[in-house]
Amino acid sequence: MSGTGLSDVIEGKDYSFPDQEKETLAHWDATDAFKEQLRRTEGMPEYIFYDGPPFATGLPHYGHILAGTLKDIVTRYATSNGHHVIRRFGWDCHGLPVEHEIDKKLEIKTRDDVLKMGIDKYNEECRAIVMRYSKEWESTVHRLGRWIDFENDYKTLDPNYMESVWWVFRQLFDKGLVYKGFKVMPFSTACSTSLSNFEANLNYKDVDDPAVMVSFPIVDDPEDASFVAWTTTPWTLPSNLALCVHPELKYIRVKDPVKNKVYVIAESRLSFMPGAVPKASKKKGKDGKEEEKPQAAWEVLSSCKGSELVGTRYEPLFPYFKHMTTAFRVVSDGYVTDDSGTGVVHQAPAFGEDDNRVCIAAGIIGKGAKDVPCPVDLSGLFTDEVPDFKGVHVKAADKDIIARIKEMGRLVDHASLNHSYPFCWRSDTPLIYRAVPSWFIAVESFKDKLVANNKKTMWVPAYVKEKRFHNWLESARDWAVSRSRFWGTPLPIWVSDDGEEVVCIGSVAELESLSGAKVTDLHRHFIDHLTIPSRQGKGVLHRIDDVFDCWFESGAMPYAQLHYPFENAKLFESNFPADFVAEGLDQTRGWFYTLMVLSTALFDKPAFKNLVCNGLVLAADGKKMSKRLKNYPDPNEVINKYGADALRLYLINSPVVRAEPLKFKEEGVFGVVKDVFLPWYNAYRFLVQNVLKWEADTGRKFEPASVDLSSCTNVLDRWIAASSRSLTNYVRTEMGAYRLYTVVPYLVQFVESLTNVYVRYNRKRMKGSGGAEDAQQALASLFDVLLSVCKVMCPFTPFLTEKMYQNLRKCLPDDDAISPPSVHFCAFPPQQEPHAGDARIQRSVDRMQRVVDLARTIRERKNLPLKKPLRLLVVVHTDREFLDDIDGELREYVCSELNVRTLETCSDPLRYATLRAEPDWNTLGKKLGKAMAPVAKAIKEMSASDIAAYEASGSITVAGATLGEGDIKVMRDFRVPDGVNPDDIDANGDGEVLAVLNLEVDKELAAAGVAREVVNRFQKLRKKAGLQVADQVEAFIEVPAGSALHSTLAPHTAYLRESLGRPLMPASCKPRGAVVIASEATTVGSEEDDTAASFTAVLCVPCVSTAAGPLLAACGGSADLAEGVDIYLASRDPVAMRAQADADGGEVEVCVDGQRVRLAVGTQLFFSAGDAFDAAAA
């Protein structure tokens, strides 16, 4: 059974995309559309998507919106292709972001402050703010049109989630991949915890740091020589225990004659030492004039290899660790370079990874934690071991330390260095490197498997996988997964007091069994007190203090969100790895990395098959978006102003989908509305209006499903059908490869072609110029394409497509299989084999549009508006098929669009152009390299016959190089034909097709231009009066006495009738009772060609009209009676009178002043002035 039929829609200028989206949201909520979609796809193959969990302690920004849009598009597309797609929102609830907020709120400065407060109170404070902005997140995500389950979300703080994290860790522990180590790690003093290497790489900034050169006097040296070391971290100097040189570098003893001191440095660094290279100094002489006096150069005393310096002892810079008998001597290692500094590196093994390694290898320190002097606490403050700077933060102590070194006479140079330095990604404070005990995952032991598994995945764009991520995996370090914090999943490790017995717990049940206690929550304050009896007679085991790095928790998300393996084992195991993940470029060293590490360690598989990586969204000035600077518009304001669809499409149709940065500009979102949505909506509205008009004109219901579109003969019907098939096939191919960055431009171009070509060129057909059946065919074609576009575009623009679909489906049979209640329940249009001729018709219409654009450009530069008709357009091209098409089926569209009388084609380009060849530098440069020059010269010297031969065969050999298609650009330079006045002709080409316009204008053409202007004035008046397409009106033209306008328009009566849909009548034909809807005085024509004229355009409601002569005859020749009848008829309702006439055999009897007069419809009586006018003309 057929639907109810289309409902009328408002004008584009009155259509509020944001308001209409809110209506659609309400409709989805009322129908529970997302759950209904899941219900309908239940039992279909699963498509597994992992959603990276954000923190709910901050509001969503454009980066979240972008990633969410990408995920929504891909999962909607997967659903429309026959998959069941579970979409659960996730929350990252633990870790530094939450603790940092509580530390600020409670003014907590140190770890001891938390312990004094109580871990239980602290953690419950953290729990209380975890979901602070969850409602704002849900509101924003919902408003964006993203379908995802918030009710059945997962949270990393849920006991089930935490238990699965324990299980993951236990598997790694059992595989021997977990160990406790003491390593120098990136350390956040603001958060009092170590960070992993990839966390340290998340937030680099360019900063100015002090760069100092410090002397270290050699013990018992006869020349009192000193080593000179350079550092940008003066705060580490109190912890100096050794100096390191490169064993193979050449070192020299040099004497500074000014300071009378001897230094030992690398020979290659001499020229960089302040004062070492002589410079002329200007000083005033006795006569007051400036004299140049050269400074004395440093004198080289001797040289040796670095290996010869090993073991040399030197005086400690500070006395804090002088009791260490193994320290304060020279060691060597290959990590020392001579590209900066002095070639001598000071060693503070507690604060440098290489320092620690080198000092252990040289026996300066042992491997244990007690062997490494570390006079800095977890808050970055100096401890009692350095009494002179006790309680001072290390970065703040730099100035005091430098001043002390200067007082000691040990400061050789003090400068400032601008360099890139790591900052804490959460607190935004400078990191330090500090030796800390930590639990590690032995990633280095299986990084070859990481590299191999990475090759099994597909990334978009591919270069992120092949370069950035591959390189990161190849240099992967062991992962420190423990954090000396409080709010997180506790490490499930219980140890004996002597540290020898270690038990790793893998489940709640195991902990309950071993501890004998009931466990309801796994956070620290619920389990820290639980003990486990020793199996080795060591008393009881206590849990270690540490919690997991929150990146470990998010990396465990594929398992923990399902509470695997405790639940959902079949669902997980049959659908792992996931089909798809997507996040920003910054996650290559974050979530993407941890997913890969854990899945490889657990199952030797990647965690995902396909990954889309987006770039960063920056402010319009290219800087990072900053709330403080307010350098970007609020996302909610943009959505409320332009709509979510516009923001979605703007983000997706940008470089950011190729992992490149996007400079966000609000005007870009507006551009989507203006350039894509409004034309698209107007095409849809045009269909609706003309369907309603067709139904009103024919008295039939529009049923597009009953129209056989396969039998279309109209060229543009065939073209738009072919283009629609190409669109569907293209989108299927590209979405299958996750290349969203190629899909959206193609979709946008298709919508542009639909509105600017198909609808624009077919307006008259759809209004009925070719009859009701032809109009139905055109409307059914447009309906079919718009319906297909809705189904193709709905993953990208879910709101607008839903709004259109809800109206379009009213024309379809009321059958759920044909017209489901939502466009998002529809199957994606199937892959279609191209029909015979598809390629040709698409190519020809594309070239036709280029011809139109080229000819329009000629008009613009010659200041010839489209209202002025031109006599001739010549289209020049070598493709005979194209010329046949444009001279055949496409001719009327070109002539109409360009307002030209005649179109000719020419296959001989030399008739209107000279040919020349240019090399395609990009293509040939890659092919030929240094051999390019002679080939390029030969290409430029190709004759016309050579070029013609190349175009015909697609290849040619020049200068010994065989060239194919695309290697040579054939340029066509316009040449005025012999015997033609250059002022009467102009041309424009694009290198392939040439459009030649005859610019001569005569009186006949000028008159046709006037007729076109008159039509334009009436159309504008209709719009101004607020008339709809289906509204029937009569058009009258009132001209001043003596005007020649009527005679000018006379030859164009048929054109005027076709364009206006009714005859254009003189004002004298306006019936007595006509109701004027609108009227406007206006002008047309030009003084230049003597066609200027003024007139008044009048639009009236159709009313009963009479023919004066026949009416007078019917009234027996009585003029008074005829006038009375005319007045009476003017008062009657035309609809009621038509019904009376139909019932009375086509006649109407009226009684005026007691006299009865019978009037015949079509002779004396008419139901519109137009009918009367046509009858009189006949």
Descriptive account of the structure:
- With 1178 residues, the protein is an alpha+beta fold.
- Helix content is 39%, strand content 20%.
- It contains 40 helices and 44 strands.
- The strands form 15 sheets. A six-stranded mixed beta sheet has the order 12-8-9-6-5-15, with helices on one face.
- Strand 5 and strand 6 form a beta hairpin.
- Helix 28 packs across helix 29.
- The radius of gyration is 42 Å and the shape is elongated.
- The model has no long low-confidence stretch (mean pLDDT 90).
Keywords for this entry:
single chain; 1178 residues; alpha+beta; six-stranded mixed beta sheet; 40 helices; 44 strands; 20% strand; elongated
Task: Please state the overall shape, judged from the principal axes of the Cα atoms.
Answer: elongated
Which bin fits the share of residues in helices? 25-40%
| Main beta-sheet strand count, sense and barrel state | 6 strands, mixed
Mean pLDDT metric: 90
Straight-line distance between termini: 45 Å
What is the number of strand segments?
A: 44
Strand content: 15-25%
